[in-house]
Amino acid sequence: MYNTHRGMVPAPNSRLTELLDQLRQEFENQSRSTGEFEHQLTGQLQEMEMIRQKVYQLEQAQIKMKQEFVPPILILERNRRGKSTKRKSEFCGTSSNRAAFSPSRLILLALRSTLARLRRLRRPWAMAPVICSVES
């Protein structure tokens, strides 16, 4: 087993040395790939945090817009209902072209269409500035 002329040192085994070199190379490769994965993971976590912050900002903007638009719409609807009952009694059920284009009616239509657009946007990250327009 041991060579008596070499002073009790085991004989070198080339197969063992080769396996140890392969093991060292594999360890270095895995260490490099682990570092790359950690770098990718860090980047993705930062991106997710940015998306989370943007969603929060958009939700806050939506709440603010809702608080801004809903009360005037309710007021205009109450006013319109009150005026429509007066008009029915005045005109005995006939409609007037002036009533269809009154300023409060146009504002109500614009606010309704804006609110409808906001309701259709169920995804808060898809929110964008909405331009009021009158739909017929």
UniProtKB/TrEMBL annotation:
Domain of life the protein comes from: Eukaryota
Domain Transcriptional repressor Tup1 N-terminal: 15-69
Keywords (A to Z) from UniProt: Transcription, Transcription regulation
InterPro entries assigned: Tscrpt_rep_Tup1_N
Protein name: Transcriptional repressor Tup1 N-terminal domain-containing protein
Organism: Aspergillus hiratsukae
